[in-house]
Amino acid sequence: MTTSTHLIRSRRFLPLFVTQLLNAFNDNLYRNAMVFFVVYTLYNSEAAEGLFSAVASALFIAPFFLLSALAGQLADMRDKARIIRIVKASEIAIMLVGGLGLVLAWQGVINQTFTVGLMLLALLAMGVHSTFFGPIKYAILPQHLHENEVLAGTGLVEAGTYIAILSGTILAGWIPVEWAAVGVVITAIIGYGTAQFVPPAPPQTANEPLDFHVWRSSVTLIRHTMKDRRVFLAIMAISFFWTIGAVLFIQFPPLAKNVLSASKEVASLFLVIFSIGVAIGSVSVNALLKGTVSARYSPVSVIVMAVFVVAFWWVCHTWHAHPQDGLLDTAGFLNEPLAIPLLLSLLGIAVAGGMFVVPLYAFLTTFVDKSETARTIAANNIVNSGAMVLGSVIALGMSAAGVPMVDQLLLGAAMCLVSAWLGRKLVAAEEVALVR
């Protein structure tokens, strides 16, 4: 805790932390305002709502799969602080387009296809923006922090990210869509301002030519990164974790509306609980490990996560909806007998997930040379995004096959078991490396 407090007060960390926090906040304010508005206002079909939610997620994820190799090369071979400032400047333009799409959809002055397309275009651009920002937020930590501060810094970034997700999600569910349109532009401008204070982070390697061939550079990057068994296992375990997260986040709004007969405020509450839980897990695992980078708690954490996913499925499965009474507001939802068990099981999923994933990210930034950290994170993003898209496709396939949305939650529980197996192999590789 002392290390964490010290970092928050340091210019080596604070400007990056705040910039990242605003970035995550804006991503989620825009994305959730858009999804909630479309699901609860424009569409009235579980199939259409689920399809839109999945398409929106896929569009946001796709740039990570296609452009992460280039983003990693740039971050390792150019000044990271300068790239942050360029990326944050572009966010202002993107949010002007996204905000316009929200306002036009709210006004209904232009046909629905155009406004939805405009909103999705901005979401795709935000995916590109986050692809280039993503490798830097972790790769810059070993460059600015001391070795015994990296785990604490990673935990704070992860916790701050989910607090920002929490804040953006709350606002998206509760404020009018026209206010959200203004909010995303203002937040982008403030984020650009805080980015100016991030200290220089010059490249730690020789300036090499950039490879703009998407497929070749991605394959080369992954092949090079995966040579270290510990890094390979960490990336694979993280990928399964984010696949589970992607499936859950896709399902929350349609599940809240169609299975639980709950309003968009309740769907927002689900995402809030999830974000709080990951933040708690992120900080807790740092306290347990006392600053040491280790995956020893990861296997048991993700097993606990699987248990809570099954508990969440069971509560949803036994929920008695009352569609004739209209959608439940937050107060009405909380008065339901199974509301508290449902929220506690969701919180358990998130806390265990945070404890599982944070040490794995610390692995990626401490067990490789500092000159390769951004490319390692980029390789992780490529594999993660590919796994998340695959998970989304599987979820869509299950919906097309007639599998009820609530039963699709069990897919997440099964993926947790795979993550636990990978986590256990990572711990074994870690023990072998210590003996050497």
Characterize the structure shown:
The longest helix is centred in the first third of the chain and has 32 residues, at 46-77. Helix content is 80%, strand content 0%. The model has no long low-confidence stretch (mean pLDDT 79). It has 436 residues and is mostly helical. The protein has helices spanning 2-8, 14-42, 46-77, 80-107, 112-139, 141-144, 150-174, 177-195, 214-225, 229-258, 264-289, 298-318, 330-334, 339-366, 373-400, 409-435. It is built from 16 helices and no strands. 57% of the residues are buried. It has a single domain (11-435), classed as Growth Hormone, Chain: A (Up-down Bundle), CATH 1.20.1250. Keywords: Cell membrane, Membrane, Transmembrane, Transmembrane helix, Transport. It is a multi-pass membrane protein. Its main location: membrane. GO terms for molecular function: transmembrane transporter activity.
